[in-house]
Design a protein that fits this description.
The complex is a heterodimer of chains A (164) and B (513). Chain A is mostly helical and 164 residues long. Chain A folds into two domains: 19-76, no CATH class; 98-164, Up-down Bundle (Methane Monooxygenase Hydroxylase, Chain G, domain 1), CATH 1.20.58.1610. Chain A has helices at 21-35, 45-73, 80-83, 105-128, 134-157. By secondary structure, chain B is mainly alpha-helical. Chain B has one domain. In chain B, 72% of the residues lie in helices and 3% in strands. In chain B, strands 4-3-5 form a three-stranded antiparallel beta sheet. Chain B has a two-stranded antiparallel ribbon with strand order 1-2. In chain B, helix 10 crosses helix 13 (327-348). Chain B starts with 16 loop residues before the first helix and ends in a 6-residue tail after the last helix. The chains are: A mainly alpha (164), B mainly alpha (513). Chain A binds chain B through residues 1-3, 5-6, 8-9, 11-15, 17-22, 26, 29, 32-33, 36, 38, 45-46, 101, 104, 129, 132-137, 147, 150-151, 153-154, 156-158, and chain B through 1-3, 5-6, 8-9, 27, 30-31, 33-35, 116, 118, 212-216, 225-235, 297-298, 300.
Amino acid sequence: MESSRFIVLPAPLIHEAPEHYACIGREGFHKRAKSFSYEQGAIDPVNVYTPILILGILAFGFAAFSIIIATLTGPKRYNRAKVDAYECGIEPTPQPMGGGRFPVKYYLTAMMFIIFDIELVFLYPWAVAFDQLELFGFLAMALFLFNLAVPFVYEWRRGGLEWD
Amino acid sequence: MNTGTFNPPEIDYLAIAPILIIFGTAVLSVLVEAFVGRTARRPVQLVLVIGSLLVALYFVISQAGTRTITANGALVIDGPALVLWGALLVLSLLGAMLMAERTLDPSGDVFAARAAALPGSEDERQFTQRGWVQTEVWPLFLFSVSGMLMFVAANDLLLMFVALEVMSLPLYLLAGMARRRRLLSQESALKYFLLGAFSSAFFLYGASLLYGFSGTVSLPGIAEAISAKPSQGPLLILGMALLVVGLLFKVGAVPFHQWTPDVYQGAPSAVTGFMAATVKIAAFGALLRVMYVAFGGIRWDWEPMLWVIAILTMFVGSIVALVQTDIKRMLAYSSIAQSGFIMLGVIAASAEGLSASLFYLIAYGFGTIGAFAVISMVRQSGGEATSLSAWAGLGRTSPVIGAVFAVFMLSLAGIPLTSGFVAKFGVFAAAIESGDTWLVIAAVVASIIAAFFYVRVIVLMYFSAPAKEPAVVAVPSAFTTIALAAGVTVTVVLGIIPQPLLELVANADVFLR
């Protein structure tokens, strides 16, 4: 199998300086850390992330600027729609009286979804590489499936699958 | 990345048997919930829980002296891990005893009849009347214990994160299941969950930065990368700081302590006692391992950081505890102050510091679980009498319980002839030996402040006139009695003859790399 199917993470930067930290002592280290400069060709993580940092600062600055300018210069006229809870621009769903109950049936469905979703997330890559994973991989997956079946059985026995 | 051949990890199943036993029993106990009839569930669960803890403890004791790294370097079983395992299992056993108690509350055990029922609703009243109990607490309890065992033995950051979650998620639920004062309990569970999830994110972010720095998540691998590189750079320092924030949250160190008083107060006292003792042990175990194994080479970078946090933790904990009027909140701030003292052992960064921290954690665990056992017994009409004013004169109306609680308070204050004194002396000595004399001076001042509020409870119990509505000590069943007796025995015995345990933690020697 080619490695292209996998995300290749950047290898760590390894410098040729086997000198042990403890050997140079506390003061020696701080001197060294100050005077050290990155070797030619080595990727400096600070420089790699500098554009992102600048972008972040610009974005934050723009947001802060817009909000401040709007509060300073904008007219303030309130109406009912403006002070209402914002819900994607549609009429807000009314809450049950006194913050009372709401049906939890969808909650059970969501729990069931999680069980099978996690199962699939792991089953799919396992199935693709099944032939390489040997017996250990098979047994590990069998155990995983058993462990996933346990909460399912629990939910089933306790009536989680009955709609009413 | 090479994808050529797959090498199955070599796992030493005997060495990690305690984790497997507890986790396997937890799975079994979910199946018990599914298939065993309602009335039989409780006894079956209790047999499973206590049996599995004892069997796991047997495996820990039987392999004393084992030093091995297994599962492709992900788990390490060394002296400190085995000592921590033993302490965690024994304290979990006592915690299980407290949670199994059901004679103290006339309407059932310490947990809500149905955790899903709306507080104050007709449903809740009916469930309580029918005498239903929520036996799901037992699988949750076992999952949490298995996570703790994994947490202190994890040798790489990924496994450590998984263990952190396995340990914490059940605790969030357990905190919200109190039978009495349910709204307070649910509020505490939500706060604990939200802040806990937040701190997990810190931990993960730190781990990812450290991976970026060293190209590995294994603790010895990070240590190697640190010594191999001439320059530390921001990735390492930032990654380490974020990782440590995640761990300090679990420890309850200032400024990551805000959840502690609310959760200690809201959770059922049995759960608070279990959690206060074991989570502290597990989190400090992991913190010590991370600091000593992965970051031992840059201790000069993290020591100033922990100095500040230790001093803040000791003083904020001790001073805020002075003004508390609720005994559970007071003990919560006391636990924060104790975290500060244990941190002295971490900062010492020496073999002495490690063994002193282990001793402190064990002494603290038994003292705390015993103190919460007493709190669960002191009751008023509406449940536990947690208001300090109700405790006035308790020492005269119930001399035995008053005396037992006084022992716990003296031990937490660090008075000689209790385990707390030996523990404090140990960490202070280790810190002085490592040259942190000023920190020890600050810690002594903080202990004096802390002693004030511990002694105040004793004064209140013995020298104050009983309150208008005095609290009554309910008669517990054998469960709480065993936990309480174990707590007070260990506290006193470790204060008078600490040598056996001191030798044990000294023989545990250093972390295996």
